[in-house]
Amino acid sequence: MAKxxxxxxxxxxxxxxxxxxxxxxxxxxxxxxxxxxxxxxGDLVIEKSGYVEGEIQAKNAIVAGKIQGNIxxxxxxxxxxxxxxxxxxxxxxxxxENGACFQGNCSMEERVKAKPTT
Length: 118
Prior knowledge:
- By secondary structure, the chain is an all-beta fold.
- The chain has one domain.
- The chain has strands at residues 9-12, 17-19, 22-24, 27-30, 33-35, 38-40, 43-46, 51-53, 56-63, 66-68, 71-79, 84-86, 89-96, 101-103, 106-108.
- Strands 1, 3, 4, 6, 7, 9, 11, 13 and 15 form a nine-stranded parallel β-sheet that branches. It has a six-stranded parallel β-sheet with strand order 2-5-8-10-12-14, with no helix packed on it.
């Protein structure tokens, strides 16, 4: 995932706790807590303080925080050092840094298909 300008991201700050589903075409950066699905056509960044509990679908994702749920990335998924991923992963490319924790199954395919949105 190319480095994007900060203005290209929708921010869920550390002080925010959100319950519900998020969908859209933009990039999302999570430093707070989301309980619900995240379905975006852009990139997802979950910061060290970030937590998502639910199904995730994004073009690319960089995870430094915690996910409890399944994630589908159409291109690349990166689990940074000290990140925690509890759930299944489906992606085209995968990078797991030393110190990351992953519990679940991983499926890597040449072409990852997005789930239809309702």
